[in-house]
Amino acid sequence: MRASFVIQPTRGLGWMTLGASLHAVLTRLKSQPQLYPKIDLAYSSSEPVLDPIVLNLPANGLRLRFDGPDHRLRLIEIIDFSKSNFSYKSMDLVRRVGSSSETSPDYVSGPSFKHLYNRLFGPTYAGEYIPPTTTDGDGTYVLSWPGLAARFSLRHRAWSDKADFVTLLSSSAASLTITMAIFAGTSWSEARINLFSERPLLPRSLVLASRTSETVPDEVEEVIVHTGGRLELFRRSLSPFVVNLNETTPQDIVAELGPPDAIFRKSRTGLSIHASAPLKDRRPSMSPGLEPYSRENEQTSSRSYTDESENEVTIDDNVDDRGDSETFYNYFHHGFDLLISTPQQCRNSHASEIGVDTPAMFVVTKVFLHGNIPGSYSFNRHRRSRWRILLDDNGHPLSLTSEMRFSEVSDILKDIYHGSYANGEEERKMQRGMVLNRGWGVADSPESSIELLGGFEEGPTPEGQATSGIGVDASMSSLNNTELFGFPGMLFEVLKNDHISCLTVYKTGS
């Protein structure tokens, strides 16, 4: 079965729209294995959030390029016209003859220059000639239209800068089209300069790109983390939405962001033994995110990334109606999770001051911002969430970003919070990493069955990139382990390559 695509210059190829997120594209590809049987991902193992990410579809003759910081589709390349059906304004790019077998080629020479120039895209300005590295090789001529470029092979000895390029490419000296590229811009020579940095015009969401309905919630572009448990969610079109931890209600969240993609009701696990001691006997922590009970919350959030069969609300009839239950709102397409529970002070005073018959208020108590870093255990369960932490260092504003290495972030935070601890011993204890295992899961846990892309254990290719395919078993490597580092109001999950996989934000003193 061949996939069919309609070429849309400056916009995309079929359902693949320029600007779409890596998460959205991969999710769509994996949902149709009969059309996309093989998916290969190439990324830099040392700089996965800075260098471009390349997604190859060898069975479909396509190659997709995403930028590293934002995971957005920037370039679509057709590298083999025989693997899929391509059309433009109801006209096929190649004429197929003979057998339609999947294993035997049945196309005639691919799209010729005459076919592209006369019948499909029309006249355009002269392009760019790239000479071969050796004098006896073939050069490449790149011809571009707005949002579209085609590369042709041209014998170097036939090239002349004084000759008409239409005559040259129409002659026998020109051979098959090598590739065709779809991009956003008026010409390839201009677009390639800022290809991976220019702000895309289309949204990350494939749903938003294909619909004009205003009922679809706007996507979150960036999250700004302020001190005091305040987060600003900057959206693509609407005004920012402010989340105040321990105050913002689930009703506020649904009204602004729409219903969550999944709801996960947290249940007690073996870690609950650490929370069995009375609260009054437990010393308050400067970094409650590193307490075992809080670690259980974080780990449960990572386990709630499930497939479609599990995207349902799970109700436990034994949940205490007095407010002891905790629920995760999973927003995979926004790149974050929200923990809905009762604030700690409400939990403490609930029985003694409020009374057991009075329901406690449910609010957002934690926010989990996911980095979606290739090679990590949690890759592709969420869209990448970009964030900035705004701080004040003795009157000097500071901004920490999701693209920074944790060692940089940690050095700055250590200086800022140096005087926030009771003594040096507490400071060292709270800033010490806690190992979080991502590969050990019980048989019925989503951790043991989730399908992954990537893995640092595979090592770099000769070009310095790690490559991966579908179905990597996370339990095969201990390198899926991460470390947790806590600072007041923040918990960082850090990968082996020093990049931040997840930032948890909570409110101190609650």
Would you spell out the secondary-structure blueprint of this structure?
Elements: E1 4-8, E2 12-13, E3 16-17, H1 22-30, E4 40-44, E5 53-57, E6 62-66, E7 73-78, E8 85-88, E9 91-92, H2 113-120, E10 128-130, E11 138-145, E12 148-155, H3 165-170, E13 174-182, H4 188-191, H5 206-210, E14 220-226, E15 230-235, E16 241-244, H6 250-257, E17 262-265, H7 292-303, E18 327-331, E19 336-341, H8 344-354, E20 363-370, E21 387-393, E22 396-401, H9 406-416, H10 424-430, E23 434-436, H11 446-449, E24 452-453, E25 465-468, E26 470-472, E27 482-487, E28 490-494, E29 500-506
* Helicity, as a percent range: 10-25%
Number of H- or I-type helical stretches: 11
- Rounded to an integer, what's the Rg over CA atoms? 27 Å
Low-confidence stretches: 268-323, 354-358, 441-463, 470-479
How would a textbook summarize the main sheet?
9 strands, antiparallel
Give an overview in words.
This protein is an alpha+beta fold. The chain folds into two domains: 4-194; 217-506, no CATH class. Helix content is 17%, strand content 29%. The protein has helices at residues 22-30, 113-120, 165-170, 188-191, 206-210, 250-257, 292-303, 344-354, 406-416, 424-430, 446-449; strands at 4-8, 12-13, 16-17, 40-44, 53-57, 62-66, 73-78, 85-88, 91-92, 128-130, 138-145, 148-155, 174-182, 220-226, 230-235, 241-244, 262-265, 327-331, 336-341, 363-370, 387-393, 396-401, 434-436, 452-453, 465-468, 470-472, 482-487, 490-494, 500-506. InterPro entries: PHAF1, PHAF1/BROMI.
In a nutshell, what does this entry contain?
InterPro entries: PHAF1 (IPR005373), PHAF1/BROMI (IPR039156). The chain has helices at residues 22-30, 113-120, 165-170, 188-191, 206-210, 250-257, 292-303, 344-354, 406-416, 424-430, 446-449; strands at 4-8, 12-13, 16-17, 40-44, 53-57, 62-66, 73-78, 85-88, 91-92, 128-130, 138-145, 148-155, 174-182, 220-226, 230-235, 241-244, 262-265, 327-331, 336-341, 363-370, 387-393, 396-401, 434-436, 452-453, 465-468, 470-472, 482-487, 490-494, 500-506.
